[in-house]
Batch of 4 targets.
Target 1
Amino acid sequence: MCCEKLSPRQALLFSVFYAIVVIVVCSLFQSDFFYIDDAAYEMLGFFRQIGHIWAQGKIPFIVDSMYIGGNEMIDLGKGIFLPQNILVSLITSQFHYIQLPGLILAFINIVLVSCSALVIAKSFKLHNTYAYAFASLVVIQPVFLYQYLGAWWNAASGQAWAMVSIATFFLLRNSFSKTNIILNFISVIFLLSAGWPHGVIGYAVVVGVSLIFQLKRFGNLKKVFYLSTPTILACIFAFPVYSEYLFSYDLINRVSGFDSQDRAFTPSWSTIILGFFPTFYDYITYIRYRLMLIPFGFSTLFVPLVFFYRDVKILWQRDINLKWFLLLIVVFFVLSQMPGQFGPLRWPFRFLPFISLFICLAVFYILQFAPVVKGNTIRLSRKIYNCLYAIWGGFFIFLPFYAGFDTLVLILFLLLMLFLMERSLFNLNESILYNFNKKYFFIILFTSCFVFFNSWNLHPIYVVLQIFSIWLLLLSPKMVERKSTFGLAGLSLLILVMLLTGLPTLGGYYLRQTDLPEHIQLPDNVNLQGYILSLPNNIYLRQTRQLNDIASAQFGFYDIKSINGYSPVGSKRLEQVLPVNQTAHGIFMPRQALKNILQIKGNLPVCHAVLMRISTIIVKKTDYAAFSRQFQQCGYIEVQPAGSRNDLYVSLPLEQTKGWDTNSPFVFPDLAGIKHLKHDNNTDLVRIPEHNDTTILIFPRLWWYGYSADVNGYSLPVVADNSGSLIQVSIPPHLHGMLTLSYFPVTWRYLWFLPMLALIGLMTLLFNNRKQNKSV
């Protein structure tokens, strides 16, 4: 067994250094690698607004500057309680550098994943060399690197905390100590706070399978109970994070159901089986059925090697861990083959990082603990050797002519990196032929046929990458035999370069990507005292240069109050007023939306747009022409054209929107002396003078459970207005004083004891740890 120690300091230093290298390499290939698609359309804007709220010392339950996605107790994916999200939101609120949030999040999450991978490797007593190689491969898994770090920041944080939770569970399994109990408890709380369901499911599968094996191996139900207790306590502690979402389920419009049409986002079997090829490009229904120019299922080069250079059969017979690895791989494989829409879960390719994780772990475990199977040493005659070198040299001389001389730098760079990792690169007797296995050689050549087949019609640069992939696979037995930390970690970086050469970023190829400036010039005469409603569909624009180009939650990044936003779960009540084609991005149906907001409902004297405090509407000229009379009846006037895209800015006069900058409520009937004293994300304070009639106040807030109102301690009902979407409070006659409208999650008023209960359970477990540790 391995007795090498890996100190926390060494693990942290390696992880920090490797994270910096990965970020630099990715940014060199594509400067905006870490803020595309959902990051640019959702997280950037919300992080800036959430950061403003945290900076005021308040909890961002409600982001009052955006209607869509403004309730963070419902939009769990923003993970407002995650430490890295709090830090990044504060930084985003202070600095207007677009790339900074993504770079910081990528650094933190890569460090978390790398440190966790090292802990996992050492919990199975792998050599330090294999541990570093394992960590370096887990970090560059394409789904995590391209999809999560680049586009889905919430997924990257969720995956990172899933890794931390798995690592701390393994620590706990190896040593049931107070420190490990606390670490596992805290990490699972953060995992649950991330709101990333696939991370939670992945951790649950690992824990469940591990506990089943523990029970089968030792038959000790007591041990299983104690190992699962920190996770159970963490679930109790974090349940209030989900309680409001569950309680408000009738208000949201989360996509659900069962749909496997075109196997959307479901990886093929070949993607997983040939995951050892860093250049296996496969077809997948990703937005549309298309060839993916990155191997989403990549795990490690060494998968085929272990079946020919290690006696897996002997290890299988004597080691239960190998069976445990296989069961986890099978379970995650089954999960990855679920329908594209499976209830509230979507897109099963999100389980690929877990498959790759345990394939890598199994491979390095076999490399270390399985008996070595020696290949044959082949010595070629000098004549054959010279012929091979002549063919080899001629091939590389011809290669730039075939692939184009623009690939010459790439070819030379890859050759240099290979040479630095394996000095005997060009000495066949000391590299490929030294420990030669015919079966392994022919398997690599056979599988390479499938790889070439899928990229047959691509640019010749992909052929160059395929050739280097095959070369790496043939050299891998020699690299493993050397067991060089520098060589194996360097191999991961070389694979990263090959991945990025094949596809520098998902943006511009498969995902929406827009070039965001640090600041935009606001047009003159456009009223921004209230909210802005942008009806054109701008999510496919490649450049944002002016106000009418902004889409989704990007308004938040420029500190502009907007109806627009981003919410995967939506709001049924708001969508009744503003129908959408796509819930997440808030892609409106312009004419239906205008019809609803430019009309008077009930006995109120103003249009619904005025109740929502919409001071400016960006609209297509044709839509304005169709509703010009309704615009005029509501007081909106055409201000100016919006650039060259046939858009118009339609605003209310400034004198009609006094107080809208602080989200003052609409009062009916008009009441002299009423004063809006304070507004923040969760609270409004309004001074109510003496009056003789019932006074109605309609606040520009989306209606959710959890709002309460009182005047001098006298509770008032908070109801929805006539549209069903806004907050309405009715003040009875003769009741005057200070009206307080506030939001607090309604379920928290009843579940506040759960965190206390979990902490009491944790302290009890820690108090009894010494006694239980002896029995466990």
Target 2
Amino acid sequence: RVGLWKWEYDWQTAVAKNQTPLQTEHRKIYPILHCGRLLGTIHLLLQAFTHWFYSTLSRFPFTHCPSTFHSPPLFLLQAAADQIDSFRVLMGGKLSKRSAQRQPSRSYSRGIPSYSQSPYNQGYAPYQQQYPTPPPPSYNDQAQGPNKRLERKFSKIDDNYKTLEQVTDALARAGLESSNLIVGIDFTKSNEWTGTRSYNRRSLHHIGEEQNPYEQAISIIGKTLSSFDEDNLIPCFGFGDASTHDQEVFSFYPDERFCNGFEEVLARYREIVPELKLAGPTSFAPVIEMAITIVEQSHGQYHVLVIIADGQVTRSVDTVNGQLSPQEMKTVEAIVKASEYPLSIILVGVGDGPWDMMKQFDDNIPARAFDNFQFVNFTELMSKNVDRTRKEAAFALAALMEIPSQYKATLELNILGASRGKAIDRIPLPPPMYGASFSSSKPSQSSSFEPSAPSYARQNDSATQPPPSSADTNVCPICLTDPKNMAFGCGHQIPMALCLGFLGAALVIFLHKMLLKPLLLQRRLNSLGARGPSYKFFFGNTLEMKKLRQASMAKPMSGLSHDIYSRLQPHLSAWTKTYGRNFTFWFGPRPFLVLSEPDLVKEVAADREKAYRKVEPRGVMKRMLGDGLLTSDGEKWVKLRKLANHAFFGESLKNMTPAMIASTEMMLERWKDHVGKEIEVYEEFRFLTAEVISRTAFGSNFVEGKRIFDLLNKMVKLAAANAFKVRLPGISKIYKSGDDIEADKLEQGVRALILGMLRKREEMVTNGEAENFGSDFCGLLLSAYHETDESKRISEDDLIDECKTVYLAGQETTNTLLSWVMLLLSIHTDWQEKARSEVQTHLGDRAPDADGISKLKTVSMIINETLRLYPPAIGMARRVVKEVQLGKHTLPKNTYFTIDTLTLHQDPEIWGEDALQFNPERFSEGVAKATKNNASAFVPFGIGQRVCAGANFAAHEAKIALAMILQRYAFTLSPTYVHSPLQIITIRPEHGVQVILHAL
């Protein structure tokens, strides 16, 4: 093991020197490193199982083991997770956020000095890390030459001022003309114990009658620099909490607006703190990168970033002496990058420290364009035995004395007022809402949307204890005795066979689910006559599916063919040729029967045996859709379906027409500037459909809902990227991938934004501005949430999930439909003219109305033909909950099937020899005639009682938009269009749809 440590040190040294590890002399020990890590992980897991076993035995009288702890040893499990995460580091990757959170949050947590010592006169001997001098060149990718470099300049400001006003005047005399403030606040977990000496053992974020250290620092900086801030707008961000860790920042306001003055900064800080879950680790890189983004967006105005934190950047115990930890390296790189912009960085240290490492960190940052970073010990200055006003002046001076010289440096370097156009485009998360509304489970209780502080924030802060010192880790993990012998030296010798038994049981369960059960099920299916590719261990056929999909999507389609089946479903296309129209394939350990015969689809729609259920989504898809109308079953689905029917059918749909017309009118006004030019309509229709669903369902507009749409769109792309991934059952409860963590953050952001929107609606009723919640979909949901009848009431999660579903489906479906209609009509201009003639006959130049829309037969034919060739979804999956006979197929319990929509829609036996051609005439006598009286052959919006609740809404919106476009414009296909259909939830044009507009 010692040898492995030495090899790993050499390996990581090569990485730090920008050498490719596999090209070094240590390549031969690469497998040994992995084996060592694996053995270490197993060893830690065995210790965890051992601890759990004895903790359980200690509850019974016949055991002698003390019952000190009965919970699993989380520190051992976390250590095992750290071992697993190190594989990423060895491969040149990054620590996962989950594993980074498990790293020691402060280097000084390993040596807590006694409270009897003076806070500022200790040597901090337990941990003295020396930074290299000069720093390794790999930490700074800029040249060290003298070009455009300024040496550190210290201001000539005197240090004998007694008031903040005198400091402000001195800054002005020293040459500071203007500055814009940015504030970053540290919300890492260590804030709960680093006020042990300096803040009476309270959390540094304690909210009480007196100001805590963070509030004091904000107040002093604000009083000093407010006169130099031209607009008094202050961007404020938090970092290090459970939603951001060391990767992101969150804005103080959900809509990302800035605070107006430091009074509002303090007020908003007090509102946010009770909502937060402190976490870690500490890295200043995200907030510095956020500040760079703001400077770039301001076209190079001078800014001062004030970071207030309780500790130095996280440095874990396994960081080699003389090297930087991942968090330190990112922070250094961010500081060096910031020197290319008119940005000064002030780090204000609050709490107990220790701060000696931070001072070394400040002094050893690589050479930069100018010295843009400095550290100030707030606690040391404010603990002096002098008048408070003098202490405040001393702190302000120490923090700001170098600002005038740094401001002048930006002038000399010609970076002030310059836009570089290459800043990191960071987008802050919304503030966390852990204690948000909808927590009431009984209608008699308050159901206000006002947030309630989480339980940890209400505990007595004075009871917060410092983290355990390093001595605590050198004891027996079972009874916490015999610190001299970690390996069960106190007599707790456990038979290794017992621990291996636990692992063996887990292995048996895994093999049963992933190997034995699928093989037995495949044998049963084969005996029933099912054909298809054989099961491959763990992955099923997903690897082949992914490979075929990547090959088919590698380049655009040749020509303008509508034969998109082999492009979007190449695996099904290949297997259909081999096994026939109905066959079975394996998605991981789950078998899927492919159905593409209308008679079988009709039986599924009838479901007389009640044997079919929706397939519950997993992973990112589950976070995106939740348990709403699209994914639920049973009584819950019935309840949600009634709400949707009320909102999107009949008179409600008719009342939405004016909003649809107004939204389309806004789009067509923009098009006036594109007459005779090319316009990309997929993006135009994305804005249109987002505006329509925002107005009709939520009583808002696209601008207010833009952030929700953006976050949902990111989740859609994440879901598509994970479409063919197979995961261990229950693994997400133990380990989360980077995509899982990103999806969690996006889900949390969407939830916070929706809660904010709903809170506004409720406040209108509470304040008397509205009599009720309204009759739109949002109002119906709120009414159902406040319903006193248990059978009609919906939960908080139902409320959020339904909003997400409508935002997503209401925008995406109509967007793609209109885009494909424009493509087809720009190719087939004869049908475009037929549709325009019909619109002019029934509507003339007036705005559409419900009566006129109902008469547009040709337009309906065109929409149906478009849905046939380019349906929104390419398949529908179901789960078999009991053995059932489907046609000639016997489906065992726990099998699955998918309805192949594209094969149904392009079957020559049903649609004729021109099935792959655009011919709306086939729908001239309705869908029944077009499908030869087999309506199950045309299923663009689903089948049976599960048909899409928004189908009529989407068709109605599409008719209105298309009619208004035809009234004003003709259009032809642009030569720049590239035919490349892409399936991401729906079938969309990968590169958009470009057309040339012609005014009528």
Target 3
Amino acid sequence: MAAAGPPGGTGGPSRGTQGAGRVASRTGPAPAAPGEGARPGGAPVSGDGAGSGPPAGEKDPRPARGAAHSVPGSAASGAPPAEESYAAARVRLLDAEGGAPRRAALARATDRWLAGLLHGAAGGAVSGSVSGAGPGDARGLRGVALVAVGGYGRGELSPRSDLDLLLLHDGSLRPAGLAALADRLWYPVWDMGLALDHSVRTSAEALKTAADDLKVTLGLLDARHVAGDAALTSALRTAVFADWRNRAARRLPELRELGRERAERHGELQFLLEPDLKEARGGLRDATALRAVAASWLADAPREGLDRARARLLDTRDVLHLTTGRATDRLALQEQDQVAEALGLLDADTLLREVYEAARTLAYATDVTWREVDRVLRARGGRRGAARLRNLIGSGQRGPAERTPLADGVVEQDGEVVLARTARPARDPVLPLRAAAAAAQAGLPLSLHAVRLLAAQAPPLPVPWPDEAREQLVTLLGAGEATVQVWESLEAEGFLTRLLPDWERVRCRPQRNAVHRWTVDRHLVETAVRAAALTRRVGRPDLLLVAALLHDIGKGWPDGPGGHSATGETIARDMARRIGFPPADVAVVATLVRHHLLLVETATRRDLDDPATVRLVADAVGGRGTLELLHALTEADALATGPAAWSAWRASLVADLAGRVGAALAGEPAGAAEERAERAPGAAEERLAVEAWRTRAPALTLRARTEEPPPAEAELEGAAGTERAGALPLGVELLVALPDRPDALAALAGVLALHRLTVRTAELRPLRLPPGVADGLEPAPDRTGTPAGAGPGPAAGPGTPDDPDTPHVLLLNWRVASEFGSLPAADRLRADLLRVLDGTLDVPARLAEREKAYRPRRRGTPGPPPRVTVAPGSSQHATVIEVRAQDAPGLLHRIGRALEAAGVRVRGAYVSTLGANAVDAFYVTDPAGRPLADRAADELAGSLQAALV
């Protein structure tokens, strides 16, 4: 709040006068209007702070209630004038070591000085104007009190802070005497060159003003008695707090809106190169607002680290005041080196990292606190409505809080993600990532209690991570904007550096570049957020998302010969191994990090018509899949950097370059999918195939897959005498053989969806029986009446027999995981599959019923729209349809039904779920076993996309 100077003056002393605490000359006094709360110049004044007392951990600067101050240098003692003593005390304190003790000492010295001023003012006032006060009897004052409010009330006096003062009276004083008393108080303050924010009010006037002005309320919540009638101050504080608590349900939303408006004007402190320590989001105003919320008794902030964060911002502001000689809260670039040196920090970057860390703590506490306020207010409203309903229906019982399952060990309750009652954090190292991924995908926050419980109990992940942990990380990163709040929750409790120790090097690291709007770590997360919207463009969204998260990780280390990209390649390679990627994927991630600037720099600085330019990029990326990923990463990186980093012109240049390089790489051999399909069947597959052929019914096996520790890790554990909790589950391998029929894919996918099994990977391929195996085996009649061998034979293609008349079955190899931990028995799966195939179990109807039951409570984060494309030239024997979509229960079942409805035959399928993204390829033919014509293929892609929207 702006401070007022004396009438006719400039509002404050010169830099030199204020810095030395010297006495400034008085210019043109004019009396303050009693009861109007006016400063000279006519502007109404109020305190601007909030909270209910001094900062936690600091000594309360308030004097004992009713006690008189001993003021050195008072007129009664014959010592030097009080203002000279105070000036000397200010000089001494401002030369002393800073921090909370100095702020409290400065407040105490100011208290003593102001008490002396009130003492002298009462003694010199018109006789009888102050009831019961005789000359020199400050402790006998009745009916008037001097009250510190706002920052001064909290004892947070920085070197150039203004003094927030309220002259409180009971209304019994004569106006002339009150005006004279106010003049004798305010003018010595101005003469000292101090900024003053003052008002003169009765308690009733103060409460009325507070009711109309939230900022006045916030100041009064920090009211602290300085001198005079302590009973007046005590009564005012009691009334202010009672009113604040009674009206909390109405006034807290006002306070929240005030913070939002301030954040829009001043930005987020933790990302600004020249932050406003007070007004920006995560600054001192927010710390004050948290105290006000706590004073309402409605909700409280998470206290861990708050005092330290607030003290860091106050310490920085103190030094900034002394360095500039001004009452400023903006940490300008030109001041940062000097402020860092005065605080004993290495450099300006270290200063900003500490300031950002403090702001991040306050911003997170603010978010958590307002969520809790919303929850409490929502519950109050709900309880009132429920009570009315119970009265109407005659039931006095309250139902339990509704809990919606989201993942194994994770549920939604009251708008937050919490742990299920059956969760066992101490035995489930993947639970933190699973809970985070579920929260982000649902667009919900992780509850503070859940995060802290996980931080306290969850064991560390083994290195390298198990597959599920990696998949959950990818799912978290793929949630888009909802990723950010969940990521912040994990960071606030130290999870990120536990999971990825190298992340500490980029946390809160500033980027002194006008183009960048985020710190390094937030830029990495924002790049992953932008990349999530591009996952339909790539075949490996998991590699895109992780590369986005790591692409600038090298900025946490000193630049080597190749800059942060070369440094980051080494770090990213280690981190990708830790996350559990296989060597080939580690190499791709490292390449993406190493060359994440290659496309945009080449496209904007080189001649694209020069074959050497295209050859250079082609040699660097090595393959079309990597090029596809690099193109998406380039766009995501630029979009996350800032508006100046990406434009339609840049996008067109990069797309042109990527197209040229892709054409140069088009001579690559066919993808690995067909090679994978042509592998020889194993013994278990052959046994199932024979059984399915003989019985003309599905045959299946269900086997849990586990991951044992690497040999080196196992040796270390054995040598240390530690015990491993057991092999980590990777999912369940489901192997199914069944007669060749068009509805096989949809049927099995539907059964898995009914049993809440998530498909992680899947392959479908025709499998011919080994020579001689089928000899003498007459297939039994099909349960649905389809004779063996009926229907068109499959064309030669991936996994298909060259001779359509060769005995064959469909083989489906799936890796599935249970959504909620419990696995169905194999015989139940087979029984339900038989029911679906013979038409007695209606999967779509069952899935629709379940979706209807959950839809009102399911608010998941919407992903990019599905994308269905034809991959021309990918196979000589079939048409390849590629589907990229947001994973959802029953997705593969819907795809299978759409393919069946289109009248095509699925000759091969390769399904992958990468985080929250489904990346599938289907090899289809017409009923005669031939690839589809171009027009028919395009129509199929269109109808399939329409079925998924």
Target 4
Amino acid sequence: MKRISLVILVLVTTLSLKAQFIVNSNGIDLASTTTLSTNGDWVNTGTFTNNGILILKDSWTNQGTYIPGNGKIILDYDVNHSFNHNNQAVGSLAKRGIGSATLITNTQVLDSLLLENGIILTNADTLLVANSAIVNANNGSYVSGYLTHLGNGNKYFPIGNGSSAFPVTLTQVIGVAPKVTASIETFPAGYTAGAGIDSLLNNFPVAWRINASAQTDTASYIRFQFPDNAVAFPSVAVAARAVSGNQFEGMGKRNLISNNGNTTLTSYSKGLKGLFTIAAGFSGNFETDSLALVTFYNNTGAVTWTKDANWLSGNVNTWQGITQTGNSITAITLDAANITGSMPSEIADILSLTTLNVADNNINSIPDFSGLTALTSLNVSNNNLDFASLEPNVSLGAVVNYSNQKPISLNLGDTVLVNVGTDYTFVSTVGGTQNNYAIKRNNVLVNEGANSTFFIDAINRDNMGRYEADITNSLVPNLTLRTLPVDILAVASIDGRMLISANEAASAGVVELFRITESGAYDTAQVNIINTTGNYTFNNVILADYILLAKPNEQVHTQSIPTYNGNTIFWEEAEAVVLNNSVDGLDIIANAKPGASEGNGILGGFLEEDDGIDDARIERTSRIKGAGVTARRTQGTSRGKDVVYILVGYTVTDDEGNFNFPNLPQGDYRLNMQYPGNPMDSTSFIDFTIGVGREAEVQVAATVFDGKITVRERIVTGIFEAAEFKANVFPNPVVETIQIEFEDVSNKREMVLLDFNGNRLKQQQAPEKQNALNVNDLKSGTYLLQIKEGAVLKKIVRVVIQ
């Protein structure tokens, strides 16, 4: 097959083919700078590739293959001609000349449709525009018949009835690959006025028919254009939509604009599919406004609102926070109503609104309210708005209050962990076109300007920290937005083994990682269970200073006790791990448990700390479990030498914070409690003596206070009875009353009941042989009953109250 190639030999080439009938059976390639103009009917039976301009003066019939390329077809018809493109696409299509162009088959325009003069008649076929631009449409050039748009967005249909242009625009078409067709029909007979319509304008000549390929496709408002002389009463004109029962229902109007002999009416209600016309009626549409409120409610938390009485159940005028005046919604007052999320654009379409107060909520975006001419007060203060929402509303001036917006989340969470040495970019972008960002690390400015990002190079202990941004906007005065702070922290790993001797690994146990703090208890950062070969690994450890505590399983390793790194049982002596990079091979050898003691002495007590509850009726302490406790006995030394302490007992506090050392021999001891970060208060009762008789048992109460462990009291509680002194105490345990029997009477005898902190709870004379002490008002527990004769302690009995 022969192919004709039309190429550029100079800057522009213009070719003209003149004949009464042109047949192209060969291939034609029209170059990008070539214009081909024809006179005479043209039948294309070959392959036509168009990257230039094809001007048709007469009919066109495409029986071959047309490749649109980047080319344009111009229908320059002085008289009526047909255009039969055989259901194929064109790139750009232009209509010139006063003659009409009749489409014989469906035609798709890929790039642009240019209407300069004359009418395109589609009859039963369709001119389909695929996301293309339509330009220069006017009263003298439009589409008469079916015009179809593909895609989302605003869609302009320059259609007419053969006598005049009646364009229609659908705003905000939304769907999945929507396909919308519009055409003009003669005003239908037999219809009557429905809701929102005073009367039909029977002299109005046309109706618009709009169809969509999918029932789920939607659109916003519709703009109808018609000649000024097409309707007798333009001031009361409103949009109308056909409903069942051969009625037209009012869609109201948002505006009515007359310009250059044409009137444009924008509907108040939304619409997409159906039969539409112009009628005389009411500008507003109460149903549309109430549906806007429903959308607002459903989109912003609904059931979590705290001010929603009667919403969606009663009449709109009974909905909490809504003011209805006549048939219009004039005020929305829903401040501090726990509203969360985005306020829909439909709220800004309630043209009758004068007051909108949604302050003190959690709204993160609002629409543009600047078009509401009736609005006198807009209060959106103390929400979660960014500058993208506020910029369009600044033009309202004093009408709007946008102060004190809440911190904005960057959706990074509270903490971002980054492997040490890795680069990281902190992004603090919020909505707005004229933002200025002041980025801070640990409250120190590190970057300022229009750039919302900050590059953290090879993150380490020096450049990690708490990042946040203060944001201002040149268009929105007197407001600084702040982002929620984010801790961007470098992390590394620590690994090693737990050993029970220099050559033997532990097979069961845990290793605890404590972060060293400036004051108070160290933070327990992680707890890791060792494997059967004693290995442990801590991953994602934030760079800081740490100590480690290896705790062998006491059932498996019965002769080993918890030990800190540095192989010590005391946290004060542990070797701090200064973590700047990952640490490997940090082994800990557990200390051996001391041998069993042989004696009759007992050391017991508990460890507690302030729980922060400030109420005189409630104990303000809570017990500490799992704290290591040691009892060390002093060893005699030569004069002038330091005292040597020998470990004789190690235990941990139980779930109630209690500990106990039995079988201690007589001697001097020192008590130590291991609660990392809280040293023992050396000025308190940490040294004690185990003696005989009533001094054989020592009970202590220790409290974590002001960053130290203070032994508040030392109570000697050994069971004791002086020789030749007889007293019988019963029942024990007791519920309500303790009975005390003596051999004789004495007016010098008294009973004193103490708790284990040494607090005196009851004191009572006991002159008779049979005496009673009421304990019904005391809580269950263990107490000490002292019996004195002439101020001399004669007996101590431990009493249990149930």
